[in-house]
Write the structure tokens for this entry.
Amino acid sequence: MNMKKIKNLTLCFLAGLIASVSTIYAQESPRIKEGYKNAFSIEPFYLTNNGLRLNYERQLASPAHWLEASFIGYVVDFRHEDRDRYLPNSFYTTWFLNGRDIRNAWSLGTEINYKYFLHPFFYLSVGGAYSHTDVVDYANTFHKFQEDGLTFYEHAWGESTQRFDRVSGNFRVGFQTKNYRRVVVGGYVGITLTHSFYSPRDEGDYTSDDITNLRYSGFIPHIGFRIGFRCK
């Protein structure tokens, strides 16, 4: 089965899942009690890669239904030669770009998820994300310069910025402390279907089959852990 068919089947599966969740939205789970209606958390894995992820959760019509908004950012500086030149792959704590002489990079993104609690501490979630990443590296590519009022392009080595825009849809299975507990501790595993938009600079830039590469489009498995607190 080729990748296009797999993607189409996955999109159909996610659409069916969302429809199923919408059907049960109005139903109350007698096992899930009323508690705190707001939660804030971070995910420590991002801190290990010069990143930060902030999550805000808000209860909807009942304690079984929640909406989560996340804000993600990275700033990476490789001016020190003794550091490995790895980059965070936006939201999924993976770290590679192509072995180039990377100088620095930054990334900002946001993610929205709907969470349905099947049990006081067990949930399913579906959502989407967008991220923008700028990478500055030392590459052999076209550089613009002006001479006598005219603009020229020269193919030479020098610093160059490449921009990546990624859109993603995800499905997760997770656990989290009960909503009447002040402290939030939880984790999840999931699968993401992502597509990367960028302008190739040479023949080696067009595609990548490596899920840790910013040029990769396709499925990415991921795992996360969070800690935080709840409030009224």
